[in-house]
Amino acid sequence: MERGLPGPDTMLGTAHAMDGRIAEGLRHIEMSIARREKENYHIVADWYRLFLSEVYLETLSGQGEASLGVLLRNIRSLASVFIFSEERMSRFWNKRARTRSSIWTGITSVASR
Question: For the range 11-17, what are the long-range contacts, defined as Cβ-Cβ under 8 Å and sequence gap of 24 or more?
Fold first, then answer.
């Protein structure tokens, strides 16, 4: 049985990103996902992916106000988000979709008996 809630790990990562430390926030959430996967807490890792997706979407949308200093300090992170976020999120979600579909196939075959 998987235990845990998407709490402090993702909140801290999201807070870093909102505080203008985008790379640190993204890295924190990504490391949390990897840690939960390694611990076989897949459902919690999926929740973390949702939070990471939200941070990516907020960053890509450009909503909110950022000072020139924040933009300059995060230029590499922002460029990485704009260039690679779609690929990263597709890779994260496709990996889980393959696992989920094989599990779902097993569940539906048992349920149909």
Answer: 13/51, 13/52, 13/55, 14/51, 14/54, 14/55, 17/55, 17/58, 17/59
Q: What are 31-60's pLDDT values in tens digits? A: 998 999 899 888 888 888 888 888 888 877
Which residue's structure tokens are 């809630």?
A: 5
List CB contacts of 96: < 8 A, sequence separation 6 or more. 42, 45, 46, 49
Assessment of whether the complete model's pTM goes beyond 0.85: no
**Measured distance CA(6)–CA(91) in Å, rounded:** 20
What is the DSSP-derived secondary structure letter of residue 49? Answer: H
Runs of H (alpha helix) within 1-113: 8-18, 22-38, 42-61, 68-73, 75-111
Cα 32 to the center of its chain, rounded Å: 9
CA separation (Å) from 46 to 16, 87, 89, 107? Answer: 20, 17, 11, 19
Instruction: Say if CB 4 and CB 44 are below 8 A apart.
Output: yes
28 or 45, higher pLDDT: 28
